[in-house]
Amino acid sequence: MPEKKDFFNRNKETIPPEDLETLQLKKLRKAVLYAADRSRFYRRTKKLRKEDARFRTIDDFAKNIPFTTKDDLLNGGIRENLCVPENRVAEVHFSSGTNAKPVFTFLTKKDIDEGNAYLARTWHMQGIRRGETFAMFASYGLFSAGFINHYAIQKIGSFIIPAGNVSSAKALELIREFKPSSSAAVASYYLYLIAEWESAGLDFKKTELRHIIAGGEPFTEKQRRFIEKKLGGRVYDQYGLCEINTGLAGECSEKNGLHILADYVYPEIINPRTGAVLGDDMEGELVLTTFHKEASPLIRYRTGDITRITRKMCPCGRTMPRIARIRRRTMETLFFKGMKIEKKQVEDALFELRGEVNPHLWRMEIQSISGRDRIVCKIVPSKGNAKTLSRAAECLKKKLGLNVKSILLTKGEIARLKDSKLKHFGDNKKK
What angle do CA 206, 212, 214 make, to 5 degrees? Predict the structure, then answer.
């Protein structure tokens, strides 16, 4: 595991809390002033003016500066929030579009270089070291996870295998050939690899993976233990979003929350219904403000992710605040005939059948057949028992109080997990 008291930048990672708050206030004023001066989006849509940056306290910032939402960005157009001439843009990336069409974000060379220095702290904290081999299984290309984190890991000095979302056979071949000590992927990609390797009867137990970073989507403690048991290493959660940056927060060796780079972004927790700022250790929606983004800054961006924040001292020695692991998103529910279905309800039902089905790979959909809606749960049986589907339907009915038809998640649907995040809910009925 990563060594305690082993820092990439000790001064920044152990900054006294009062000094951090002073630094945050200074950076918040600068961020608001920059957006008011450079962003058409913030001037036109949010009516932000330079004088709005004259707040005296962080509380004043929260009371007077409006939120930004994904819908705001989508409605504003791709370049509405571009704050530099296009000839200064070094890269463009977009969000994964899990719940909507993607949001584009631009990066200057300065954005990339500064981001590397901050993100390297997260990766180092999670066990990545100079001279060791790292396998990047996150997607490269327009999706930000591969490239942006690649640069930060290079800054540490690791040897990187830029695998991307390769086939399961190629992934195992690379792991056997180069013997990486660490890897990263969206959480469901590991589930895809394990399912494919087991289906093919491949021996994947003897790897040298010690640090397995899983990010990009929420995963449960049961899924963590499942991946650790199958792959042998320790799984660490990591959080980020393309609109701001990847690797913004990550678990240390204590695994008691994700240290967030609070000198790179400013985190708030709000009541998702009222927008009121909540205190420490209260659960709500995470809101982030960028301090260092030159091309596409964001002020009070509502992430849609539900968590809480604590500023209690961590045994690892880091003073950066911690957010709780993301369990769900504000949109991560399915409504069927007036009933609200939560992801955890489905997971708990399928976990009762963990000897017969893979409780981590499933998809629930609303379908319309001849004008009548029905709810379907697609599952992956561990055994070829014909009664498994009916037993799954019984467990789901008991847990949800609904008649759910259980069918097989096809190999094609499983294979597509290597190209995208696992979307557990879908509403496929015709509009």
Answer: 140
**Residues 252, 186: Cα–Cα separation, whole Å:** 18
| Helix orientation angle between 187-199 and 221-231, rounded to the nearest 10 degrees | 50
Q: Are residues 190 and 299 in the same domain?
A: yes
How far, in Å, CA of 190 to CA of 286, rounded? 26
Report the CATH number at residue 421.
3.30.300.30
Q: How far is CA 43 from CA 33, 48, 124, in A?
A: 11, 5, 38
CA distance 419 to 404: 28
Kindly compute the dihedral angle of the four CA atoms of residues 334, 257, 123, 21, in this order, to the nearest 10 degrees: 110
Diameter over CA atoms, the chain: 68
Which positions of the chain have pLDDT values less than 70?
1-5, 96-101, 328-333, 335, 337-340, 370-372, 383-386, 417-421, 429-431
Q: What is the pTM of this model?
A: 0.79
Whether 165 and 213 map to the same domain: the answer is: yes
Q: Look at the chain and count its residues.
A: 431
User: Do 364 and 425 meet the contact criterion of CB atoms below 8 Å apart?
Assistant: yes
